[in-house]
Design goal:
Beta-lactamase; globular; 17 strands; 11 helices; 395 residues; two-stranded antiparallel ribbon
């Protein structure tokens, strides 16, 4: 047997051994493949990418269905998704990096950086009253600022006022702030959790403090150090063919990859403007699992990462409450399980989702991260809730 044949046999045996181990990992995931395929067959989603990693090892990375139905483009593990509110953790990390450098403090009033907002009032019935305290950077990070969201993500009177001239429809961050200055708060700062535009406001503060565009700050301090080479606010023309089209109910096309506004965006939304891949987002998850250390490089103090993944809400406040008991809290960028949920999640697990059907969960105790990417609106967390027990049971 000549040397080349021996090498070929050796390579084949190594590949077979690796594939056998990988396949075993997939089998341990249970009915995940079957579940996703049923969702596609029943036209609930057009496609998906699932990535599961534990102990710095990828257990599963698989694509399903279609990136674009109309042109019969198959989904790929390198497909690029609108991650919407999964942008918020990266914006939060950006702000915490400035805190780490002493350029920002969690207790700073946002008016120090956004003087346009110095005259904000709280809507109290038909009256507008002065807030009891200033909005702080911490309030923005944990959604206790008193801002609203609109866009169907809230039903307060202030949410309805937002929808008349929505701040997110502004062409620039500074214009968004001007619109917010004319709108009331829905609650006094620091008291109540209300999911809101807080991270978009924080994005503008990051720009003013760093004297850089948000994309430039993230690229220099997060994306490049982590090698997140497919994460952008603006989709490069050269990568358009990898971008997912967006679908609605009945898989009706909402936005084609060929005509997406992400090709020409001007407002870099800190609350929902990024596009990314599952592989890229895993790198961010690994940084968090490493307590701010990635490939032996410390990008942010482990102490501050600890603050980010610790519940920061006032007593009695939470993302999810039942019978006056808070089951899910919020840190500085993430929702956090405050109790043991069994097959639906463990105490200390944290993560967030995007309105276009993207989700991630990090479990520090198990050194586990899993990412679920789909391209479907309106938002539903059903797939995440259904897949979480399957994934946790297979680990």
């Amino acid at each position: 047997m000549n040397l080349i044949n021996k090498i070929n046999i050796f390579v084949f045996l190594v590949f077979a051994l690796v594939w056998s181990s990988y396949s075993q990992d997939l089998k341990s995931i249970g009915n995940l493949n079957e579940y996703i395929q049923k969702q596609i067959d029943h036209k609930k989603i057009s496609g998906a990418v699932i990535l599961i990693s534990q102990n710095d090892r990828i257990l599963m990375h698989k694509s399903y269905g279609y990136q674009d139905i109309q042109e019969n483009i198959s989904m790929d593990t390198s497909s690029i998704f609108r991650i919407y509110s999964m942008t918020k953790p990266l914006t939060s990390l950006s702000a915490m990096m400035l805190v780490d450098r002493g350029e920002l403090s969690l207790e700073d009033s946002i008016v120090e950086y956004l003087p346009e907002l110095q005259n904000l009032k709280v809507l109290n019935g038909k009256d507008k009253v002065k807030p009891n305290k200033a909005i702080t950077i911490r309030d923005l990070l944990r959604h206790t600022s008193g801002f609203a969201y609109g866009c169907g993500l809230g039903s307060s009177k202030v949410d309805k006022l937002y929808n008349k001239n929505h701040p997110l429809l502004a062409s620039k961050g500074n214009e968004m702030i001007k619109r917010l200055a004319k709108l009331p708060l829905q609650s006094s700062p620091g008291k109540e959790y209300h999911y809101s535009l807080s991270l978009d406001v924080l994005g503008v503060i990051i720009e003013r403090v760093s004297k850089m565009k948000l994309s430039e700050f993230m690229t220099k301090n997060i994306l490049e150090p982590l090698g997140m080479n497919d994460t952008y606010f603006k989709l490069p023309e050269s990568k358009k063919e990898r971008f997912c089209s967006m679908y609605g109910r009945g898989l009706k096309l909402i936005e084609s990859y060929k005509t997406t506004p992400y090709l020409d965006t001007s407002f870099e939304s800190g609350g929902g403007g990024l596009i990314s891949t599952s592989s890229d987002y895993l790198k961010f998850c690994k940084l968090m699992l490493g307590n701010g250390i990635y490939n032996s490089d410390t990008l942010i103090s482990p102490r501050l990462v600890g603050e980010m993944i610790k519940n920061q809400l006032p007593d009695g406040e939470g993302v999810y409450k039942k019978n006056n008991e808070v089951g899910i809290g919020f840190g500085l960028g993430f929702s956090i399980n405050l109790k043991e949920w069994g097959k639906y999640g463990h105490k200390g697990d944290y993560g967030w989702s995007g309105i276009g059907g993207t989700h991630f969960t990090i479990s520090p105790e198990r050194k586990l991260a899993f990412i679920i990417m789909t391209q479907k609106q309106p938002f539903s967390d059903k797939i995440k809730n259904d897949l979480t027990p399957i994934i946790l049971d297979g680990i």
